[in-house]
Amino acid sequence: MAEEVADTIRDKIKSHIYALSSKLPTEPELMKVFGVGRSSIREAIRILVNDGYLRVQQGVGTFVISSEGTESLGATFERGQFSELLEVRQLLETRIVEKAALNRTQDHLKTIRRALDLRIQKAAEEDLEACIDADIAFHQAVADACGNNILAELYGASSKYMCRVFGQRYTSTKVFAETHQAHEQLYMAIQQQDVVQSRHVLHGIIEAV
């Protein structure tokens, strides 16, 4: 059922019924349109996020980011080993945090802060799925602050598969709670525009995964 919903939404995106940069209807609205449950809608959204058509912004909504998707790139990530994903993440995020420290605005900082607060909240509640989503949202918000849209999109493409791997690798929110202080330090380094400290803290975060 989720695949059918994803196919229909994908067709609407390709035919520009759901236009580029537009906000998708809410989950309840989509449930009513397609006559399916919340789990099917969420799985359909996840499929389209993985394929590069949509981006979910926590607390804001789901937005159309491409009418073509990145399915070929997605297939490469799909075949990748965990170690390869980590290497890609380290290469991308090292440059991302350096540039974010230089280019972040107050609006960027607010978005990063919201994701960070949600991350520790969901870790404390032991809500693993929501905690992983918040963790990805935090790092995506940092990527969005770097000032390079291509870097941000590349990180977004890789993070979809990191999200999946995290869901398979972890059975509790323990690791997210344990790395919260390091994420706080990364936020502070970006806020203070400290490029060297941002890079240093990030490497510690990645090594803890």
Structure, explained:
- 73% of the residues lie in helices and 4% in strands.
- α2 (27-34) packs across α3 (38-50) and α7 (128-144) runs antiparallel to α8 (149-169).
- The chain has 209 residues and is mainly α.
- It folds into 2 domains: 2-64, Orthogonal Bundle (Arc Repressor Mutant, subunit A), CATH 1.10.10.10; 71-207, Four Helix Bundle (Hemerythrin (Met), subunit A) (Up-down Bundle).
- The chain has helices spanning 2-14, 27-34, 38-50, 71-79, 82-103, 106-124, 128-144, 149-169, 174-178, 180-191, 195-207; strands at residues 54-57, 61-64.
- Strands 1-2 form a two-stranded antiparallel ribbon.
Total E-strand runs = 2
SSE run: HHHEEHHHHHHHH
Tell me the Rg in angstroms: 17 Å
Compute the average pLDDT. Answer: 90
CATH topology label of the largest domain: Four Helix Bundle (Hemerythrin (Met), subunit A)
The portion of residues assigned to helices is over 70%
Shape: globular
List the helices and strands and how they pair.
Layout: H1 2-14, H2 27-34, H3 38-50, E1 54-57, E2 61-64, H4 71-79, H5 82-103, H6 106-124, H7 128-144, H8 149-169, H9 174-178, H10 180-191, H11 195-207
Antiparallel strand pairs: 1-2
Helix pairs in contact: 1-3, 2-3, 5-7, 5-8, 5-11, 6-7, 6-10, 7-8, 10-11
InterPro entries: GntR_C, TF_FadR/GntR_C, Tscrpt_reg_HTH_GntR, WH-like_DNA-bd_sf, WH_DNA-bd_sf
Pfam family, one: FCD
Keywords: DNA-binding, Transcription, Transcription regulation
Task: Looking at this protein, list some descriptive labels.
Tscrpt_reg_HTH_GntR, DNA-binding, Arc Repressor Mutant, subunit A, 209 residues, 2 strands, 11 helices, transcription, transcription regulation, mainly alpha
